[in-house]
Model the fold of this input.
Amino acid sequence: MEKRDTGCGCEKPKEPLQQPSNNTVNPDGETSLFSIGKMDCPTEESLIRAKLSNIQGIYRLDFNLVQRILTVGHKPGMEQSILDVLAPLDLDARLATWEDTEGAPPAAKANWWLLGAAAIAALASELVYWLQGGNTWPVFVLALVAIAGGGLSTYKKGWIALKNLNLNMNALMSIAVTGAILIGHWPEAAMVMVLFTLAELIEAKSLDRARNAIRELLNLTPETATMRQEDGHWHETDAKQVPLGAIVRVRPGERIALDGEVIKGNSAVNQAPITGESLPVDKTAGDELFAGTINESGALEYKVTAAANDAVLARIIHAVEEAQGSRAPTQRLVDQFAHWYTPLVFAVALATALLPPLFFGGAWMEWIYRALVLLVIACPCALVIATPVTIVSGLAAATRHGTLIKGGAYLEQGRRLRWIALDKTGTITHGKPEVTDFEPWCGTQVDKVKVMTASLASRSDHPVSKAIAEYLNVKKSNLEEVETFEALAGRGVRGEIAGKGYFLGNHRLVEELKVCSPELELLLGKLESQGKTVVMLVGESGVIALFAVADTVKESSRQAIEELHGLGVKTLMLTGDNQHTADAIAREVGIDRAEGNLLPEDKLQQVESLAGHGRVGMVGDGINDAPALARADIGFAMGATGTDTAIETADVALMDDNLGKIAGFIRLSRTTAHILWQNIILALGIKAIFLVLAFAGEASMWMAVFADMGTSLLVVFNGLRLMRK
Ligand SMILES: Nc1ncnc2c1ncn2[C@@H]1O[C@H](COP(=O)(O)OP(=O)(O)OP(=O)(O)O)[C@@H](O)[C@H]1O
Ligand SMILES: [Zn+2]
Done:
């Protein structure tokens, strides 16, 4: 259990963001994170897996290659023994937490001078060999210098792998280089070793870029904040030291250092770092501010509401980093393939070295050489690295646009969505309805009706109730005491005032109470066909008054729906509101189908009934949409800056309430899939070509290393391309 120091003893620590949920859960188990400093190429992963997977008490292993984090689910108290098992692998393993992964350990320091000298020695060896027409002692010496300078670490890692009966790239390279030496190809052995080491270094560097892409978002928050001291002076303070409740000042043009609530001043704030929307938002006393956003026009004073490491932005970043650990389906497929590929090529190489000379009179030296080339080709590195780099770049791009994706799997699945179900209130509309009509129904005194209604409505958080309470504007001291107050899901509220029962609710409720009448029905029909929502105050003698409220459609909704249709995605509106209103709003924004009068479980059922027609996404703002959001293949939460629960429960959280982000997400998912397949075809294609060439004796060893290095770099850069999307 990890605790955050919120800087205030009485503050309850927030729950850590959820781990991706597709893991086996063991109720009495613990989860530990290990930082594996030298886990660069996926080859190290299989080494660790082989070591740990057979140990009693370990039930889960998750590798996050990009962050170099290994998550182990195990019986309590096993941390040290896990470290002991990992120690001989020499991978620099240590216990870690998500908080202290601050910039994952940098790639092993490259000794460029040594590598440069090794490269010169290798080239010189090649040159001398060519000038003197054969292997002379200077050729040996130069080649040995090159191999020692460039390849010792490869040999060391290769040896550890071989000892563990693991054929990783280092093992294959060590065998290939040693083999080349044994058959007298000295300069080539030297060249291959130097090139391989260089390739590894460049690859590690490019992975660092992907790794830091998300971290860089965190650098958006200033290190210091201007805090008011007890004596009223302003003082520049380390942002991490600012306690909750402190008063902080931010000048125009400055970035906001901490989450807070404005207490003084007016300004426009650019919230793009969080919402991806660069249109400034006006802020005044009482409004929320987010760390990392930019204060544009005026000076603001605000009260700090979250410690630095608890800011919305910090929590987003942790969520995305954890999301990188969950494997996308393609990645699992590729991993499985790689698992078989290397041993298979190794077997083929062995056969190539032995069979032709033994049975078909081939020349030994020639066929052994071809076998060695095959070994070089056997590395699946490019293939295995291609997927995580692409996915992580995609996740980073989405985060930059204010879309928080909770796992690579969702990014991959997004392009398959055929239906999007949308909630009405707060998703398509602003969710801030206003009262348009007030009609007393029976001859009760209007003033009394207002007080009764306001007393009930002010007890509820529902937008409709809030609108009514605001409209009636009854002084707090005049409100009646409400007893046994109760919210009736999808209907309204009830409570007792002065011993008498009252209801405030919709048509469904009125029908259930059997107090409807044809006259009422007529008026309801008229108001509803105008897109209004009607609720009624009901007393013991029947309906007392009618209130109609109308919500406005967001300007962005119409275009967002059009974009979805353009992508071939069908839309369905699901709402607890009446069918007339549902139809009116649906028509206004161009939604394909609308279903009204739905209770939360009906929304779930609607989503379920779509499941037969391809993947289904559901967009909602939380409360009565939760079951449907959970059932959908991808659940989208709107306006996640407001609620922590949205960040934590949804599969994809949209940081502001612009529906257009859904189409953006689907497009990004399609591009990601494109690049993924490009990468896989590229990696496999180049291998296939070289396999044939090597077999035909047309490929030399260092062509093979070049090809391998080139492919790795190509797929990494191709993947990083997504980051600019
Ligand atoms: N607390 C309440 N006060 C007043 N009316 C309510 C309340 N709760 C529900 N209602 C009535 O019941 C209807 C359905 O409510 P529900 O919360 O299920 O969905 P909704 O808010 O209308 O919209 P959506 O499903 O699109 O989010 C509301 O439109 C309203 O008429
Ligand atoms: Zn009726």
About this structure: The first helix runs from residue 43 to 52. Residues 224-310 form a domain with the Calcium-transporting ATPase, cytoplasmic transduction domain A fold (CATH 2.70.150.10). The mean pLDDT is 83. Residues 507, 511, 516, 521 surround zinc ion (ligand 2) (CB under 6 Å).
